[in-house]
Specification:
Length: 368
């Protein structure tokens, strides 16, 4: 009975190597999420038996009963992190403990079982080791890792899933913008809301992403690449696309300041977001503030020539400069740093990549 409430253990990991190995893609033409490595990690759970032993085996399709809750009520959550091949050839992860913490918090919110993040990390390290030939050599490329949990209980009632599958897949990805930090334009339409007080917007659940597809298409129709998610009567900036957002400006007191919305329940607690805040506080050369930013603040700061940079921050693209907002029929141009020049976004980008690729020793980069 005690076992029911225990986490799975790395020591119970079983490894079955795939007999057939996949053909490697052209490392220079990787499209995000289109290529997968040879193996996957799977860990089933059931209410009666608790966690089963972790197993690494060949990547294969999952069999689901057509009534599986995940297919009806989207009982699903995921994580995204990368394994980087460093300049010294060693493979590192970036702050994977943060992903483990967030995954457990999403699991709790989804009524799915929690587990020991350290045990999962040790299993994941074995998976990456086994598929290490899939960690690209090319600069700014990496192996994207997708830990996932689904409620696969084969019953139709809207209730907690009594069965669950935790699995981890991975695949090589290239730099998000092959031509450097390429600025994007955003549709800021307050009639679409991603997250609101009491919603699950602060958790990495698939159900937060499905409703954004149509909005993304609308943005494209209007000539924008992504969506700027606004919230509230005062049109607070919350997130951009699948990323957190930050502004760098001269504030109304004449101080240089990095501002990002606080973790007020509407914001996904991004690992890149946290890292930018921590790095900036460590540098100590400008003010760092977590507070709401409204569209009025942005427009005023542009009018008064105080806005220096506006950018998205996430694991997939690291830093994504923003050059234009389409907002209530207005076409707002955002200043962007000159290519090759100094900027806060460039400094963040370089610093993070130096850590991730082992050019700079740092406790955030951990060997597998
Ligand atoms: C990000 O890192 O920006 C993401 O959230 C990635 C994603 C494909 C959902």
């Amino acid at each position: 009975a005690a076992r029911k409430h225990q986490s799975f253990k790395y020591d119970d990991l079983e490894i079955v190597q795939s007999k057939k190995l996949g053909k490697k893609p052209d490392w220079n033409k990787l499209v995000f999420g289109h290529n997968f490595s040879d193996h996957m990690l799977s860990i089933p759970w059931s209410e009666t038996k608790g966690w089963d032993a972790p197993r690494i085996g060949p990547l294969k399709n999952i069999e689901l009963h057509p009534a599986a809750k995940v297919l009806h009520y989207a009982i699903e959550l995921f994580e995204g992190l990368k394994a980087y091949r460093g300049v010294d050839g060693r493979i590192r992860l970036f702050r994977p403990d943060q992903n483990m913490k967030r995954m457990n918090s999403s699991a709790r919110r989804s009524g799915l079982p929690e587990f020991d993040g350290n045990e999962l990390l040790r299993c994941m390290a074995q998976l990456i080791e086994l598929d290490s030939s899939w960690v690209p050599q090319s600069p700014e490329s990496s192996l994207y890792i997708r830990p996932t949990m689904i409620g696969n209980d084969p019953t139709l009632g809207v209730s907690r899933s009594k069965e669950c599958l935790l699995y981890v897949i991975s695949g090589p990805v290239g730099p998000y913008f092959p031509t450097g930090l390429k600025p994007v334009s955003l549709l800021a339409d307050p009639s679409f809301v991603r997250s609101w007080p009491g919603s699950a917007g602060a958790f990495k659940m698939g159900s937060n992403y499905a409703p954004t597809i149509l909005v993304g298409k609308e943005a494209e129709k209007q000539g924008c690449q992504q969506v700027l998610w606004l919230y509230g009567e005062d049109h607070q900036l919350t997130e951009v696309g699948t990323m957190n957002i930050a502004a760098y400006w001269t504030n109304e007191n004449g101080e240089k300041e990095l501002v990002t919305p606080p973790l007020n329940g509407l914001i996904l607690p991004g690992v890149t977001r946290t890292s930018l805040l921590e790095l900036a506080r460590e540098w100590g050369v400008f003010k760092v503030t977590e507070k709401n930013i409204t569209m009025k603040d942005i427009i005023k700061s542009i009018k008064e020539k105080r806005l220096i940079e506006l950018f998205g921050a996430g694991t997939a693209c690291v830093i994504c400069p923003i050059s234009r907002l389409l907002y209530l029929g207005r076409d707002i141009h955002i200043p962007v740093p000159v290519e090759g020049g100094d900027s806060v976004s460039r400094r963040f980008y370089n610093e993070l990549l130096d850590i991730q690729y082992g050019r700079k020793a740092h406790p955030w980069a951990v060997d597998i």
